[in-house]
Amino acid sequence: MKKLSILLLHGPNLNLLGVREPAIYGAMTLRQIDEELQRWASENNVDVTTLQSNHEGALIDAIHEARHWADGILINAGAYTHTSIALRDAIAGVALPTVEVHLSNTAARESFRHHSHIAPVALGTVQGFGWHSYLLGLQGLVARLMNEKR
Q: Active-site positions?
């Protein structure tokens, strides 16, 4: 069976994981999270291509490009989750199965974090499990894609 290809996007400030508010976001660095996901992916016949950017346009460009090669998208849009209609439109526009993830439980945080522009165009959202949210989101996305190929 052909390897699945997943685009993993990390939004603004996620490059500071491990030092930024560890009580909320945990002690793992972004590199450590990526390494854990790559380990799982390699064991499960999945290619994961990662990009972290603090720039909305770079994330949108990556989403647009992914329509040519990716089977799905895993995204932690960070604060753009709550503000970016442009990211939402890019995801809707490429029509790739997408899973939204968050390290913290955004519904239990400040009220401005309660609304997601991404969720309505995503297969699902995984949040509140620290770095495991990424792994659970990747596993769910891959399971869904594999099920669709049957």
A: 25, 102
